[in-house]
Amino acid sequence: MFHFHLNNCGNVAMNHVSILAPEDSSNMDGIHVESSNNMQLSNLDIATGDDCILLGPGSTNINISNVTCGPGHGISIGSLGKYLDEKNVAGITIRNTTLSKIDNGLRIKTWAPSPPSTISNVTFQDIILNDADNPIIIDQQYCPDNRCSQQGDSKVQIKTVKFVNIQGSSLSPIGVNVICSKSMPCQDIEFSSLDITMHGSGQPTTASCSNVKGKFLSNVVPTSCS
Asked: Which residue numbers are catalytic?
């Protein structure tokens, strides 16, 4: 279920919109985009029980800026890989955004096993995360409610993703969690100017990564992947 469902749309601008729903309104995305091209989503205030914004299969050339999200499940790309013949996701920019009291902050999610597709050219930049359970997560073993076989790897190729100037606090000791496909590792994943610390103590968070080819550049907390 969605508050706004943007499907098969092009050349859309959404500006100065507020979406306010109870935190326990499960399965209720704020804005759900799929099979759409060339969108500007800006100056949004979203509180809901699921993803504030979800970019599904076929989302291309989407610019998101100046969003306040929370409570909710953050901003997600995907899930991809659940169905055959899903369209690729490409050209996504999310910037100048604040997410507070959220389950997931910035998330990319794909099913395993899955048919082939790609997620590419994604930038998350200038973002504040306040008290996120999972501040940054790439999950290529996405399986809600344990209802999938997991007898195989995700065939969704994730590549050219940048996380730039991300600051905030985590409710988990893991600030960056990257779980990529064994048979199709993530390519060109880049982290720079991160400062994600533990809520309350201010101690540095850690990073956990598997099957990823990427770089942790200057001024990064957590400092590297384990």
From this structure: 73
pLDDT at 85 over 90: yes
Domains and CATH numbers, the chain: 2-221 (2.160.20.10)
Q: What is the DSSP letter of 146?
A: G
Helix (H, G, I), strand (E, B) or coil at 48: coil
pLDDT digits (tens, 9 = 90+) for 190-220: 999 999 999 989 999 999 999 999 888 877 8
Please answer whether residues 103 and 131 qualify as being in contact, where contact means their C-beta atoms are separated by less than 8 angstroms: no
Phi-psi region of 183 (alpha: psi -120 to 50; beta: other; left: phi over 0): alpha
**Selection from 80, 81, 72 nearest residue 55 by Cα:** 80
Ranges assigned E (strand) in the chain? 2-7, 10-20, 29-34, 36-47, 53-55, 59-69, 75-80, 89-111, 117-142, 156-170, 174-179, 186-198, 206-210, 212-216, 220-221
- Show Cβ contacts of residue 134 under 8 Å, excluding neighbours closer than 6 positions: 103, 104, 105, 107, 172, 174, 177
Question: Is it the case that residue 226 has pLDDT exceeding 70?
Answer: no
